[in-house]
Each structure stands twice: as structure tokens, then as C-alpha cells.
């Protein structure tokens, strides 16, 4: 009979990943878990003190000392965010093993991890940019090969007015929009399958209904049943990740605002614009947290902090303040 401490790391990694699938992570997230777990396990196996084939590496070989050495080698060519992500994955892995009775304790607290600052929000730049984007996309542009302004406008409006992530948009069904007039809402399956409900105003409701009516004309009444995927391509098939990303990028180009989209943000810039405007209009961190489905209040507070910094920068740039500064120079410190 195999002793628990002799079970192979690779076997336990697969058990952990199978257990994680119940949380409905994206394929990208699962691939990142596997990559980080295998990278560290491989470094432990290659260490001269262990010198074992990765396929037979026992869980008992993953001591705090071995993990510290492996993480030190792992960290050398990588950014702090990558190291922190790997540390968090291994911490979750050992928490799973402890709960399953495979190991007695979690050695990860003995392994140093970098402090990674929260990423700054990346909303669209320019006060009127969101409105310009919506107006441009709402027009029927005959230069497009397959124009569908009602669908494109619905995508942008759901991201800008409900703050939905890309994965959340793709998972929406026609029946995800529910409620009586005046109490309409969109029901979202967020990260890890965690549900949340976002109130929607009549304007957004009208945009989505306009899209569904255009879809009914294109593909028939059966295409808009409650259990149908909400967002579809020009053939009536469910939009996929790459197709949705391309759609949003093409909307930016059509509106002529590509220079106002933060690098690397794309669709997420719309969600960040939603959150930033909530903060600018006085929403609390807890309200932003609930509406955006953040895991922690700290992430939501980041939007308020950034907004406060932007307001102070605007005041500092005021020409009257600069003139006053020439008359009465501020004392250093």
C-alpha cells in the first residue's frame, strides 16, 4: 500500500486540477495552474539534492527547503507578478493537500513571495470617449462587409453600463436579462461561477431588445429563446473569445479612438470605464465591489484612489493655481 507521503507530485497535481474544475475556471486559468505547478515541481526534481525523475517525484520531496530553492531559481528571470501567481497556485495546491489529508501542513508560508501592487485601472482616455464610441458604432457603416450595428452596440453597452468581463459576456443567455419594467437586471456568472445581479436601466434594456429584434429578423424567432446564447456571430453561432475581442477592436477602429485605449486593455477598458465612472459619481468601494464582482474590497478601493488622484492632478493643472504659485512659491516640504 502506498504511503501518502510517497504519492507522486504529478498525480496529485492532476487531482488538484480536477477538483478546481468545479469552480468553473477558464481554460486559460487551468493552463496557468498546470504550468506553474509543473515548473516548480520540475525545478525540485532537477535539484542536485533530489535528482529524481519528475514522473516519480514523491510529495514528500516538497519540503520548505526544497521549495525555497526552487522558487529562487524560478524567480530569477521572471517578473514579480509571475512569481506571486505561482506562489499563490502552490499555496492553494498545498491547502488542497492538507484538506485531503495527504500532507500534515502547508510549507508555503516559509517560502518568500514578492509584494505585487494592484494594477492601476485602465479606462478609456478622454471624458467624451465612451459616448463617441457608442455613437459611431450605432451608425450603419456601409464600409463594413457584414454590418450589424445593433449587435455591436449591445456588446459595448453591456460592458460600459454593466461592467461585464469578457468571459461573463460570452456566458450570457437571452434569459439572463430578467425582471419587470423598472426592475430589470442582468444575472451574471462571475469568476469561479460566483453569481451576481446587476441592475440595468431602461436605456441599456432598449439597446439589448433592439439587438434581439434584429437577430429575430435575421435568424427567426427560435434564435432568441431564453436558453439561447445572447451574443452570436454573423452566422448565428455563439461568439467565441477571439471573435468578441476582434469585434471590440474593430469598434475602436471605426470610432477612431484606438489611441485612447490603454495598451493591453481592449474590452477590459470598457469595464474599467464603468468602474471609474461609478467612483467619480460617488459610489462607495463596497458598491463597486458588488457590481463588478471583485473578490476583495481592496481592488474596488483602487478605483476610488485613482479617481481621487486624477481629481488632484486636474486641480494642480489649473492655470490659476499655477499663476498663484508664481506669486507665492510653495515652501519645500
TrEMBL record:
PROSITE patterns: CB, TYR_RECOMBINASE. The keyword DNA-binding applies. Residues 7-98 form the Core-binding (CB) domain. Pfam families: Phage_int_SAM_1, Phage_integrase. Keywords: DNA integration, DNA recombination, DNA-binding. It comes from the Bacteria. SUPFAM superfamilies: DNA breaking-rejoining enzymes. GO terms for molecular function: DNA binding. Residues 119-316 form the Tyr recombinase domain. This is Site-specific recombinase XerD.
Amino acid at each position: 500500500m502506498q504511503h501518502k507521503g510517497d504519492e507522486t507530485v504529478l498525480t496529485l497535481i492532476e487531482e488538484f486540477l480536477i477538483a478546481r474544475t468545479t469552480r468553473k475556471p477558464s481554460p486559460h486559468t487551468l493552463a496557468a495552474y498546470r504550468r506553474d505547478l509543473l515548473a516548480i515541481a520540475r525545478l525540485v526534481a532537477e535539484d542536485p539534492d533530489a535528482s529524481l525523475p519528475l514522473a516519480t517525484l514523491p510529495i514528500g520531496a516538497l519540503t520548505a527547503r526544497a521549495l525555497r530553492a526552487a522558487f529562487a531559481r524560478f524567480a530569477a528571470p521572471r517578473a514579480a507578478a509571475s512569481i506571486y501567481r505561482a506562489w499563490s497556485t502552490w499555496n492553494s495546491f498545498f491547502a488542497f493537500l492538507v484538506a485531503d489529508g495527504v500532507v500534515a501542513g502547508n510549507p508555503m508560508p516559509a517560502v518568500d513571495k514578492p509584494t505585487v501592487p494592484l494594477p492601476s485601472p485602465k479606462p478609456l482616455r478622454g471624458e467624451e470617449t465612451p459616448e463617441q464610441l457608442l455613437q459611431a458604432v450605432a451608425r450603419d457603416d456601409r464600409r463594413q462587409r457584414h454590418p450589424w450595428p445593433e449587435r455591436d452596440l449591445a456588446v459595448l453597452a453591456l460592458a460600459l453600463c454593466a461592467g461585464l468581463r469578457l468571459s461573463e459576456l460570452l456566458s450570457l443567455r437571452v434569459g439572463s436579462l430578467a425582471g419587470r419594467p423598472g426592475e430589470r437586471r442582468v444575472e451574471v456568472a462571475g469568476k469561479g461561477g460566483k453569481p451576481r445581479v446587476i441592475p440595468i436601466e431602461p436605456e441599456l434594456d432598449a439597446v439589448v431588445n433592439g439587438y434581439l429584434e434584429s437577430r429575430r429578423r435575421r435568424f427567426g424567432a427560435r434564435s432568441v429563446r431564453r436558453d439561447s446564447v445572447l451574443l452570436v456571430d454573423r452566422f448565428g453561432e455563439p461568439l467565441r473569445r477571439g471573435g468578441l475581442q476582434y469585434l471590440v477592436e474593430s469598434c475602436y477602429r471605426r470610432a477612431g479612438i484606438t489611441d485612447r485605449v490603454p495598451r493591453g486593455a481592449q474590452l477590459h477598458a470598457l469595464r474599467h470605464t464603468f468602474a471609474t465612472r461609478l467612483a467619480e459619481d460617488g459610489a462607495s468601494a463596497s458598491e463597486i465591489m458588488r457590481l463588478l464582482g471583485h473578490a476583495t474590497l481592496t481592488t474596488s478601493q483602487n478605483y476610488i484612489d485613482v479617481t481621487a488622484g486624477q481629481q488632484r492632478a486636474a486641480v494642480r493643472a489649473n492655470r490659476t493655481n499655477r499663476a498663484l504659485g508664481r506669486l507665492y512659491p510653495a515652501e519645500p516640504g
